[in-house]
Amino acid sequence: MQKEISTKKIFSKLLEKFETISGENTFNCYQCGCCSAACPVASEMDLLPSQVMRYIQIGLTDEVLNGNTMWICATCYACQARCPRGIDIATVMETLRQIKLRKNEDWTVLGKIDVDELNKLPPIALISNLRKMTG
Amino acid sequence: MKKIAYYPGCTLKTTAANFEESAIESMKKFDIELEELDRWNCCGTVFSLATDDLMHHIAAIRNLIRVKEEKSNQVMTLCAMCYNTLKRSNQRVKSNQEDLDKINDFMYKEDLNYNADVDVLHLLPYLRDEITFSKIAKRVKKSLNDIKFSAFYGCTLLRPKEIQIDDPFMPTILENLITALGGETVETPYAIECCGAYQTVNQVDVVVERTKVIIDGARNQGAEAIVTSCPLCAFNLDHRQKETKKKYSKFIEMPVFYFTELLAYGLGIEFKKEWKDLHYVDPLSIFKN
Q: Could you say which of A6, A44, B13, B227 has the lowest number of CB atoms within 10 Å?
């Protein structure tokens, strides 16, 4: 019996949008785990970077978008520097953030942060956070 | 005195004023004036990675137009994040004419079109390549006297490779500067890792864990202080030691310096009270002379 193995069944509109925004092909990932090993904040994540890559490959986009991985990522590029397949995983994370932010689902809500705390922060922290975590 | 156009960025005018002043004073000792641009705006702080998002490169490119207006083809940065953002936005428009045209069209009210012809410099490689560490060593008036430093590079001077100032996995530029100033350096595996960056705004716990690992790692190798080049790393590694100590009572605090503060100290420039006041952990405690 012949079986067809194809990505067509899982290739949703969301994945198409994902590829347009990121310019990355997640199917290049062969799950070596270098990104997760390199990530200095992986212990804080619901899904490891390499798991995010796998979930996207098999179409589990809701699970990825409802997790915290892309919001814990600080775009440090440790993963990208080590990926043997040349995937820019930092851009994958940015794309996941963008998909949420373009629907007005901000991660940082300044109103929830104590004013005294905000006053202590340097501009570099506030601006970079708001650029990455709000739409 | 040789003049170089200089882009400060927001944080060097506020919480990292010690970084700026120590750099400007030090460069004067080498007959170089870092001449601040007459006009500048925020660089955007972080480089936008989405392929379809040109809007967030405008702030960076506008600053490069300011450089051209001052008849210069190069601009010096001190802040590691400004360096990264300006340089990468510049590279994006340099390698993509369509992006450059769109950005120029958008900024039609500017007096000149940007032609992607400004070089974005950072002071660290300038010290290494133009002034040279051997020349710096000859000018040292107050040696760091074998104080042991742990270099903390963070991310934005080393990654991605298109903008790296040194080997991304085994950088030595900060260590070589410290050695030239008479100090000692220790190696840690955390020197090229992330400090937690902007998570310091709403996920302080992430930064506290990073600060603990990085400072403890340095201390375990015998370091007495950290040296860095990024105002966000400096804030997280220095000021967040307060929260780290609160969470881990046995945590021992460690001073954190900008490399320019140590350069200025070595060149005999007074370590001003205003600089000290911007630190959380007393920086002067480690100096032995």
A: A6
pTM of the model: 0.96
Helices (H), chain A: 13-22, 34-38, 49-57, 61-65, 69-72, 78-82, 89-101, 115-120, 123-133
| Domain B135-286: assigned CATH number | 3.40.50.11810
May I ask the CATH class of domain B2-123?
A: mainly alpha
Q: Phi, psi at residue A118, to the nearest 5°?
A: -60, -40
Chain A contact present for B1, CB below 8 A = no
Dihedral sign from CA coordinates of B266, B267, B270, B276: negative
Question: B244, B208 in Cβ contact below 8 A?
Answer: yes
The pLDDT profile of chain B, 289 residues, written as one tens digit per residue, is 999 999 999 999 999 999 999 999 999 999 999 999 999 999 999 999 999 999 999 999 999 999 999 999 999 999 999 999 999 999 999 999 999 999 999 999 999 999 999 999 999 999 999 999 999 999 999 999 989 999 999 999 999 999 999 999 999 999 999 999 999 999 999 999 999 999 999 999 999 999 999 999 999 999 999 999 999 999 999 999 999 999 999 999 999 999 999 999 999 999 999 999 999 999 999 986 5
Q: What torsion do the CA atoms of A102, A106, A108, A109 make, to the nearest 10 degrees?
A: 130
Where are the domain boundaries for CATH 1.20.1050.140 in chain B?
2-123
Q: How many CB pairs under 8 A join A and B?
A: 136
Looking at residue A83, what DSSP letter applies?
-
* Protein fold of A10-103: Fumarate Reductase Iron-sulfur Protein; Chain B, domain 2 (1.10.1060)
Whether residue A10 lies within 8 A of chain B, CB to CB, comes out as no
